[in-house]
Write a structure and sequence with these properties.
The protein has one domain (about 10-195, about 220-250): NAD(P)-binding Rossmann-like Domain (Rossmann fold), CATH 3.40.50.720. About 40% of the residues lie in helices and about 15% in strands. The chain is built from eight helices and seven strands, in the order βαβαβαβαβαβαααβ. Helix 5 links the parallel strand 5 (about 140-145) and strand 6 (about 180-190). The protein is globular. The protein binds D-gluconic acid (GCO) and calcium ion. D-gluconic acid binds near residues 98, 100, 146 and 190.
């Protein structure tokens, strides 16, 4: 076995919403392995900063404005990316949102918005990217799932519903597309130190202590902790790996936890 199994030189990777946090860390991992980075966002401003940061890392990087929930925008953007940058070899469905509201207080429109971005978005982008991958004879699709693909938690019903759905969408894509040499898999991050978890990670917040205690590795994940999984599932090393969710969670899903006085 050679380390070249993980080389991504000459590959083009689209990381949706890859302008900060976990998406940016995964994109940097792929860039370090040799890939050209393409990211999108709804607004131009955040893209400019992200592209500057990628370029400062020495990567070839490109930004496109489009909304993953709008199929006409996605279709046009993918045509543009593939003619201006190159065929998309790797798609990371990373763009996502969360709303933390108890079910009885949650507006239907908010519930639908989370499902739209976190579940329908990956469907739309994958559908449109996979058509080209099928014609070209292969590709890699990584859906960013969550602990909430497996576990419930107070206030995150829409997010958990979407991420549970994304796990099953991953298996459905693997079922339909593995024969086209497209490997579709998921990454399920545990609890990571990002802006998304900032409100529940503050020192002294009971949730902060709860997570550290609930995680066998006894810490929050750092975004860089996802890079190995992202490179693996983007590379030749995973060419017969289909429909898995690779949980990178410091062991959370391995254990029921322990009483608070131990
Ligand atoms: C929460 C968190 C989670 C994480 C993550 C866990 O409120 O419980 O925000 O949902 O973001 O996805 O894997
Ligand atoms: Ca290429």
């Amino acid at each position: 076995m050679s380390i070249n199994l993980f080389d991504l030189t000459g590959k083009t990777a689209l990381i949706t919403g890859g302008i900060h946090g976990l998406g940016m860390a995964m994109a940097k991992g792929l860039g370090n392995a040799g890939a050209t980075i393409v990211v999108n966002n709804n607004s131009e401003e955040a893209l400019i900063d992200a592209i500057a940061e990628y370029k400062a890392c020495g990567f070839k990087a490109f930004g496109y404005v489009f909304d993953v929930t709008k199929e006409n925008e996605v279709f046009d953007a993918i045509q543009k990316i593939e003619s201006e940058v190159g065929p998309i070899d790797i798609l990371v469905n990373n763009a996502g949102i969360i709303k933390r509201t108890p079910i009885v207080d949650m507006e239907v429109s908010d519930f639908k918005m989370v499902i739209d971005v976190d579940l329908v978005g990956p469907f739309i982008v994958s559908k449109n990217v996979a058509k080209g991958m099928i014609q070209r004879g292969g590709g890699k699709i990584i859906n960013i799932c969550s602990m909430m693909s497996e576990l419930g938690r107070d206030t995150v019903s829409a997010y958990a519903s979407a991420k549970g759905g994304l796990k099953m969408l991953t298996r459905s894509m693997a079922t339909e597309w593995a024969k086209f040499n497209i490997q579709t898999n998921g990454i399920g991050p545990g609890y990571f130190a990002t802006s998304q978890t900032a409100p529940i990670r503050v020192d002294g917040h009971p949730f902060n202590e709860f997570i550290i205690k609930r995680t066998p590795a006894a810490r929050w994940g750092e975004p860089e902790d996802l890079q190995g999984a992202a490179i693996f599932l983007s590379s030749k090393a995973s060419d017969f790996v289909n429909g898995h969710i690779l949980y990178v969670d410091g062991g959370i899903l391995a254990t029921i936890g322990k009483p608070s006085n131990e």
